[in-house]
Amino acid sequence: VQLQASGGGLVQAGGSLRLSCAASGRTFSSVAMAWFRQGPGKEREFVAGIRRRPSDTHYADSVKGRFQISRDNAADTLYLHMSILKPEDTAVYSCSTVVRGRRYWGQGTLVTVSS
Hints:
Layout: E1 2-6, E2 9-12, E3 17-24, E4 33-38, E5 45-50, E6 57-59, E7 67-72, E8 77-82, E9 91-99, E10 102-105, E11 109-114
Parallel strand pairs: 2-11
Antiparallel strand pairs: 1-3, 3-8, 4-5, 4-9, 5-6, 7-8, 9-10, 9-11
């Protein structure tokens, strides 16, 4: 499984951004996916997850109501729609999944939110 995240950039506080994660391999539609982030000087933390059913999602309290995770199984792509961004959302965002007991990580994409 290979994961490739993209879509990061510099945005002003209150703005929006959409991250994408393209997955290779034939397992995408059958596995849960998640976004994590690691801010400067912080531990990596869970942001949002989505199970095989696109409607089955869950979020960290810090992003509830502002971020939305979605997936396009036909395109093997995971998304993270981020809105009402805050400076504390600044981080490297990575997509991840677990296949047959092994966790896979995509290379991260940097999101910088300016105040």
